[in-house]
Amino acid sequence: MKKLLLVCLVAVCTIVKTNAQQANPIPFEGHVTDSAGKPLAGVSVRESNKNATTTDESGHFLLRVKSSNATVEVSYVGYVNQRIKYSSTAIHVAMKPNSRALEEVVVVGAQIQNKRTTTTAQSSITGKMIENMPAPSVDVLLQGRISGLNVQVSSGEPGVAPTVVVRGNSRVNTNIGGSANVAQAQAMSGPLYVIDGIPVNPEDIANSIDATGTNYLAGININDIETVDVQKDAAATAAWGSRGANGVIYIKTRRGRSSTPEFRVNAYFGVTQKPALLKTYTGAEERALKMHIIHQYATPRQLSALPQILTDSLNPNFNNATNWQGLFYKNGLVRNVDATVSAANDVVNYRLSMNYYNEDGIIKQFGYKRYSMRGNFDFKISPKFNAQLIVSMAKDDRQRGAKYKDNSDDNTPFSNTGNAPQPASFYLLNGFDSSNFTGLASKLRNKNTSDYYTASVTANYSILPGLRYTFQGALNSTSSNKDYFRPSNLDAVAASVSGAAAQPSYALSDRGNYSTYFLSNALNYTKKFNTEAGNTHNFVLTAAQQFTSDVSSGNSVSGYNVPSNDIQVVTGIPQSDLGGSSYYLKDALLSYMAQLQYDYNSRYLLYASYRRDASSRFGNDSKWGAFPAVGAGWIVSDEGFMKELKRRDIVNFLKIRGSWGLSGSQSSNFYAPYNSYSVSGTYNGAAAIQPSYTNGLTKNDLTWARSEQKNIGIDLQLLNSRLNINADIYDKISKDDYYNFVLPFYTGFQQINFNAHDLWVSNRGLDLSINTHNLSPRSKFQWNSQLVLSFNKNAIAKLPNNNRTFVTDDYYGVSRIYAVGQPIYQMFQMQYMGVYNKNSEIPFNPLTGNKITYFKGYNTVQPGYPIWKDANGDGDVWSGEDNGDQYGDRVPTGNPNPKFTGGFTNDFTYKNFSLSVVCTFTWKRTVINTFQQQQFDALSGNIANFAKNRLPDLDGINYWTPQGAAKDPNYKADFPAINPLAGNFYQFFPFSSMWNVDGSYFKVKYLMAGYNIPRAITSKLKVKNIRVYGLVDNVLIIKNKHNNMPDPEAVDQLGVYSGGMYPQPHKFTFGLDVQL
Amino acid sequence: MKRSHLFTAVPFVTGLLLLVSCKKDLYSGPIGSTYGQEFWTSQAAVEKATVAMYGQFRAGLRNAPSQIDYSEASYFVFGDLAAGVFSPAGGDVFLNYGVASPKFNFGYVPYWEESLHNWSRFYQVIAQSNLVLQNVPQMSKSMFANEAARNNYLAEALFMRAYTYFYMIRVWGDPVFVTKTYNGADYGNIPPLARTAEGIVLDSCLADLRLAAGYMNYGGGDPSKSIRANRGSAYALMAHMFEWKHQYDSAHKYCQQVINNGGYSLESMDNYPNIWKGQSSAESIFELPMLYSANDPNFKGAGDWAEAQFNCFGTFLKDSKTDGKKSSCWIAPAGGLFDNTLFDTTVDARYKSVFELVDASGGDDKGYMMTKYANFAYGVHDTKSYPYVNNDLVLLRLADIYLLDAEALAYLGNIEGARSQLAFTEDRAGITNYQNPTTAYDMIDEVVMERGRELIGEGQWYYDLVRTEYTQQWLEYIGQLPARTTPTAKGYYWPLDMATLFPYDNLLTQNPYWATQGR
């Protein structure tokens, strides 16, 4: 594929070159910037229709004109046109923004709104800002760029989706204990994506076709993206109806822009670097350290009975220094090639692009590859009629090591929980182990491919002046295919490893397809009334009807005991080991909406929308949901009293806006209202059918979940637009969300997923983004900054059953409390407060007068024990599941939702050089290091485990020892005893807050430097522009000093670091961008 | 221009047409599973729902904790282990907490709470019965072969609901009594329910059973009919319920119905193990099929619904009986209740037929291993994988009814009548203990002991001890504290897992004795 692309490239190059002939003699050179001094690319500079050019990336143009009297017109959408006389020296053109221009628009529902007069709260980034960033999908790159958006990249595995949450999580998932994957995939409320007008719900797709688990957005080439608009308030989201409740991300792909045909090829190449290994102790050092620890605690009798692995240093099986981590990591490559052809003229406008992206994983056997093509075509058929066609195709191929079901990183070989704890370095590492651990086992096959096809047609027809009809039809099809084979280990290698458990071979073939059909009919009416006094009333009225249907189908066959390890597909499997299933799901959504925009002199703005949706996913009596929204705005800067400030360029623009609205989200279950019955098994050979006891009751009233949102915001441009501030405060209440009700035992049913009318989640916060142009527009050196801050306060506002508090344990054993006033997933643990250093510090049980106890009276507290707070004051400290007091001494201890997140970006340009520094940060969230926890737990209370498991990093861990306490009356340890010889009362379990740590971080995420080859050279090469650039990804991490996790972001959605989390790699790339 | 109009019209009309068709899409149901309104439309469906009821009950009885190594069916823990004849397997420390030391502390059984302190699984059977009872009467006549067929389904559901409540009552005491389905309830606000006195529940169940018996025919001793309810099993259950309520006249009456009209006959001593062989004995009144079927989709997974399992009956077997798959089991220790009180091992033919004396091994004491359920086999013979025990679990059988009748007659003061009923099983076993007793008290004691011998390892004897406690005090004899066994303390019942159940039912109360036993 890569070769093919290069061949195409060369072919097209040749064609284009022959056309690039210049007839005119006099070169006219210049540099075009915006009023802030930032170079403008793509600005049209034309002498006549036949003789024109556009500016390059650095704003330069060179036009050969006919004579020295020539005048050229410099024009660019959104700016006032300028006519410039020829000058023999290079000129500087500063373009003034055309504040009346309708260019910067945002699509809200079926209506196109001008960003200047919209009353919605939305933030955008342009494709330029994320171009050439080496990431498989765009969502990762939105991190820190958009206020109100919290993106956390929990896994660095290429092709895995990050968590994207708009204005706080509203999902209250109570099924977090089952598997790590559930928490990862369904703990948070994800937004709706609208790609070129077509709504797509990646979460629905992921839930339906989970064959490969690849991020849906990875199917879109980042360099094809023109803008990403994130719509946050109800005025914007209500018009999208279904799933708008959690925010809408609108992605628009690039169109042809240049009036002359343009060919562009862009390639970068780089390396991904393996991370530093965690500190561990090997060989003699490990043995010495372990013996040292044992000597601190052991009695002479215990010393005489140590495990052989520690004492027998001459045994070749136990005499190694294996650092197991080294098995997994490797350096890799990342490469990307884009080729684009585009042009725009009065009749047709096209852009065709091809892309190849390939990133190796930094863990062996991981990687991601994509081939994609996209074509955007605009046809102007008549002045009244135009049409647009978009087609795109992509194929990706993801290597996933030995993982075959979940996306959770918990099952990377590196994790503690997925496998046994990592063994001590003493063990001999043989070939079978290493291939088994790294998923390289010679015959493992794990092929994951996805195909993405999109085709959409839009037709606009002006029926009458001001009245436009728009038809939109689209098909979006995604398929995922997985072929998996895991050989049995009953082969020669396995047989040589004593005690290896027999594992049968397993083959799986899984196919799934998810198609979305979308149809929209819309009428748009624009009317302007001029009054005699010279005022204007502007109306835009839109009415639309939309129909969406999703069809998800697929099949899977799998089986154990494939006859031979040479056969890697599902065939020849004994009947009883064979499993097969297929599924078919279909839903439909019918919507009607009306949207009205009104403004008076473009200064006083009003907006109202009303949308009704009927979904097949709801009960017969409750299919319809209504989602109204209103907004108002006032452009203060247009008022007379602001005239002076405006004239003096102090306040260039000030808009105050507010909105209120309801938006909805529908059940994730296609057939939610139906109480499903299933075949449970046989009784004396006869098939039995019973309702599902987890979802088997009728739900005729099941209906839309709603979120009500209020928003007030200002948009402010100061000091000649050098300081731009956008700020919004919001109050969002999500109600009636789908909730797993635990039913009373006497109903016979365990739970049901239903609208919880008494489940309210409140998200309040502030979105702030500040853009500055720090230097004068006339300066050659330019420095622009962007600071983005998203504050969010998340809390449960109401709970079912009279606000009944409840507690659920997550997959890692950390309890979460669901209580009114607490944030979702608040940790609920015994409070850890250090170590009891001496006897005198241990408090007494007020009832018995004896020392307090742990674990329901079983353990009298001794020096060296952790201090757990006796929250209920009963003289015994325990999590207390079964002593009648169901919550024991647990208290709310930590919030995994960050207090605020954001980003700080600085762009520097000087002449042909540019430099961007992108930083992101997350502040004040509690995370739990269960990796370290499990390492300590694996050592405690059992000398055999202590001997055979790996030691954690003990640097800086001042653990309590009896010898230390005996020597010094003022002895102060800050970590409990790690005594492998005394009883274990689960002191290292995460049911105390011992492992909680501040997960704040500040990352320098990208450093990107570019250089435009001077025109003098490029013109000799007969190309328009050449840019070279280099990028460093994940440059620097600053974190809390107590946080010893390698990457504080590599925690799951509930804030748990399991050690298996795939780290985000350092990437270094170098690229070349050539425009012909 | 005209052409452009056409361009617009095409999509517009297409859009309108689709609008019509999509109305239908908004109302289409799943094709991947069946659901309420589609399901209750044929007799075949009712049959499948009825079968599910039995299957759930079977799963409820076999239930055991999944997170510990030894999985012993709660049915035998309640009925046999709690009676003190057997000693838990050497490896099962957790069950040891509850039944060995201190003796019979039902309140502390770590990891077993879900099985022993939680009755939720039986409410699933109740819900399924209620679902049948609610839907079948609403179905049209034409969906059934005839009215009798419809009534028979109703009767089976009434029987299973009654049996389930009776089972819960014997284990936990007063149940929460529910006779409706919760379809369409306000799921966030289901009102809490308090427990109903067991007598009231049993009266209601007895009324149901009277009705049900009229809808059903006798099985006539046909072993293949013993796996579903019939008139014989309904009367046998009624006899048990009356006996539990100490209404001995009625108990005697229904025992007689079973004995005289049921068509059952005692198995000969030579073929004694036939009783548990699976639908093979005319003695069996009601049994749950647990035989291996090659077509059982759940067999390899050995889940709740697997017909044949190793764990359930494997509890009683070890070493050579299991081809070494298990090295310890529930043993009746030598020098304990088994040989000191119950069995004369030199005479009793039952001892010879279904017991083996085994030496101490695998953490077990020397003692007697029971082989009533000992048809051990492998799912895949070649690789010796997927072991299972191929026997049925017999819940009601004729010998049980004879002895129940004997107990009723003894309480009624009819020593002679009791003697003659007792003779059936004692004669078959070749023992003659019954000839000695002359007082009602001694006679009842003899019946209790004979039930202990005849029904050992059938999940029954503990309830016999509870039932006769008010006159015989066997519970103290086996080691329960006197404070527990009073009718007000109800300490012979198992405690409920209040931490799990109470949050969803704020009217639920703990059994009085256990409410005072804070751990």
Uncertain segments of chain A: 4-22, 413-419, 491-500
Mean pLDDT of chain A: 82
> What would you report as the Rg of chain A, rounded to the nearest angstrom?
32 Å
Give the distance, in angstroms, between the N- and C-terminal Cα atoms of chain A: 23 Å
Spans where pLDDT lies below 50 across 5 or more residues of chain B: none
Physical arrangement of strands within the biggest beta sheet of chain B: 3-5-4
As a percent range, the share of strand residues of chain A is 35-45%
Strand count of chain B:
8
Task: Explain the overall architecture.
The complex is a heterodimer of chains A (1076) and B (519). With 1076 residues, chain A is mainly beta. Chain A is 10% helix and 45% strand. In chain A, strand 5 and strand 6 (82-85) form a beta hairpin. Chain B is mainly alpha-helical and 519 residues long. The interface between A and B is large, with 77 and 84 residues.
Observed structural traits:
heterodimer; A: 1076 residues; mainly beta; five-stranded mixed β-sheet; 16 helices; 54 strands; 10% helix; B: 519 residues; mainly alpha; three-stranded antiparallel β-sheet; two-stranded antiparallel ribbon; 21 helices; 8 strands; 6% strand; globular
What is the gist of this entry?
The complex is a heterodimer of chains A (about 1100) and B (about 525). Chain A has about 1100 residues and is mainly beta.
Secondary structure topology:
The complex is a heterodimer of chains A (1076) and B (519).
Chain A: H1 2-19, E1 26-34, E2 44-46, E3 52-54, E4 60-65, E5 71-75, E6 82-85, E7 91-95, E8 105-108, E9 111-114, E10 122-126, H2 127-130, E11 149-152, E12 163-166, H3 180-186, E13 192-195, E14 198-200, H4 202-208, E15 225-231, H5 234-237, E16 248-253, E17 262-273, H6 283-297, H7 300-303, H8 308-311, E18 332-344, E19 348-360, E20 366-382, E21 385-400, H9 431-438, E22 445-464, E23 467-486, H10 492-496, E24 506-530, E25 536-560, E26 578-600, E27 604-615, E28 624-635, H11 643-647, E29 651-665, E30 676-683, E31 686-691, E32 705-718, E33 723-735, E34 738-742, E35 751-755, E36 760-773, E37 781-798, H12 800-803, E38 806-809, E39 815-818, E40 826-830, E41 832-835, E42 853-854, E43 859-860, E44 866-868, E45 876-877, E46 890-894, E47 900-910, E48 913-923, E49 926-929, H13 930-937, H14 943-948, H15 962-967, E50 996-998, E51 1001-1012, H16 1015-1021, E52 1025-1039, E53 1056-1057, E54 1066-1075
Parallel strand pairs in A: 1-7, 13-16, 42-45, 49-53
Antiparallel strand pairs in A: 1-4, 2-3, 2-5, 5-6, 8-9, 10-15, 11-12, 13-14, 15-16, 17-18, 17-54, 18-19, 19-20, 20-21, 21-22, 22-23, 23-24, 24-25, 25-26, 26-27, 27-28, 28-29, 29-32, 30-31, 32-33, 33-36, 34-35, 36-37, 37-47, 38-39, 39-40, 40-46, 41-44, 42-43, 47-48, 48-51, 49-50, 51-52, 52-54
Chain B: H1 2-25, E1 34-35, H2 36-39, H3 43-62, H4 74-79, H5 93-99, H6 113-116, H7 120-135, H8 147-172, H9 198-215, H10 231-244, H11 248-261, E2 284-288, H12 311-314, E3 332-333, H13 337-342, H14 349-354, E4 355-358, E5 367-370, E6 376-380, E7 385-389, E8 393-397, H15 398-411, H16 415-429, H17 440-454, H18 461-472, H19 474-478, H20 498-501, H21 512-515
Antiparallel strand pairs in B: 2-8, 3-5, 4-5, 6-7
Helix pairs in contact in B: 3-7, 3-8, 7-8, 8-9, 9-10, 10-11, 10-15, 11-15, 15-16, 15-17, 16-17, 17-18
